[in-house]
TrEMBL record:
Organism: Dendrobium nobile (Orchid)
Region (Disordered) location: 59-80
The F-box domain, residue ranges: 84-124
Protein name in the entry: F-box domain-containing protein
PANTHER family xref list: F-BOX DOMAIN-CONTAINING PROTEIN, OS02G0202900 PROTEIN
Amino acid sequence: MQRTVEASPASGQRGVRVQAQAPLVESVSCYCRVDAGLKTVAGARKLVPGAKLCIQPDILPNGPKPRSQRRGRSRTQAPFLPGLPDDLAIACLIRVPRADHQNLRLVCRTWNRLLSKNYFYSLRASMGTAEEWVYVFKRDRDGKISWHAFDPINQLWLPLPPVPAEYSEALGFGCAVLNGCNLYLFGGKDPLRGSMSRVVFYNARTNKWFRAPSMLCKRHFSGSCVLNNCLYVAGGECDGIHGTLQSAEVYDPNRNKWAFVGEMSNGMVPLIGVVYEEKWFVKGLDSNRQVVSEVYEPSSNSWSAVNHGMVIGWRNPSISMNGRLYSSDCRDGCKLRVFDDATDSWRRFMDSKLHLGSSQSLEAAAFVSLNGKLAVIRNNMSISLVDVSNPEMSFETNSAHLWETISGKGQLKTFMSNLWSSIAGRTGLKSHIVHCQVLQV
C-alpha cells in the first residue's frame, strides 16, 4: 500500500511528496504471473516484498542462463547408462564387440560422441578388448577396385564405404597403415590423368575417408613401408620421366608433412619389401629390367646394395614377425620357410599337409599378422592361420595341428570344382588381391 500527499501550489509552498510503505509480510504466494515482464524471483520481489522462491519452471532463481550453459548442463546430467556411474558404464561399452559399434552409435548422441573419440578406443586397447580385422583390396576382371573387411571373430565379410573415385580404377597405388587404425592409399596411376601424388586415408574408427597432404613426387608402382609409425615411399615410375625413380620420401602423421630422405643407389620398381631388424629391404627391377636389391637404414638415412643370402632366396609373400622373417615355400602358402641368420640362408619351417592347388585363385596374395598368428590371405579370400610362436619348430615336426582355416568367401568353392575348372580350361583369374592390411579398433 502506498500513499502520496502534495501541498497546493496556491499556498506558495514547495510541493512535498510523502510515501508510506506497508510493513513487510511473509507470503507463500507465487508471483510468477504478476507481470508478463517478470522472469526472475528477484523481479517479483521488487513488486511484492517478502515473496518466497517461486517453484514455477519458467522462473529461474538466478535469472536466464546462456543457451551454451544450459546445453552443457544437460550433457553432464545425461548418464551413459541410467542407474550406473559413467566410468562403470564406459567399462561396459568398451567390451561390446566391434561388429555392434555401428548400432551403438544409433542409440543416442551421447554414445555416438563417445564412439567418435580416441579415448574410447584407447581404453579398448589398454583393456585388451580391441579387435583386429583384415582389409583387402581386390581388382576384378574389368579393372575395378573393390575392398572388403573380414571379422575373424564372427567370420563374416562386411560392407565398406566405396573407395575414393580417383582410386576406383587406379594402377600401382601404395597401401599402408599408421596409428593402427588409419589406412592410407597413395600415389598410383589414373587411367586418364596419369601418375598421381594424391594421398587419402580411411579411419576405421569413424568408417570414413579423409584427404592427407600429397606426396612431394608423383609416382606409381612404388615401394613402401612403416618405420616408427612413419610412412616411407621409394622408387617407382612417373609419367614423363624416363626410367625408374631413385627418390624417396617419408610422411610423419604427427607433423602431417612429407619430407625427402636419402635417394636409392639405383632406381627401381620394388616388387617385394619387408622391414627386418629395423631396416627396410626392397627387391625389384631397375630401368634395364634387371633384378636389384637395396636396404635402407633410417639411422644413417642411406641406401646400400645388398646381395647376401636373405635376398637371394627371398620370395613373395613374406612377413617379419617376432624378430623372424618368413616366406612362402609354395604357391598356395601352405608351406613356410624361415630365414636363418646363422647360416645366412632360408630353410623349410612348417607344412600344413593340406595343399589346396596351384590355380591363380588359390594363390597366396599376402602374409599378415592377425591376433598374434601368421595369416595367409589367398586370392579367393580364404584365410589360414598358423601359430609361429615356437621358434624350435622344424619342417620334420608334425605341425599340421598349428594350422587353422577361417571360413571365408573362398571356402565355398571346393577342391573338385577347382579341378573341374582346370580341366574345362576356365582358369582365368576373375579377380585378385592387390593389397591386404590389418586394422585395430
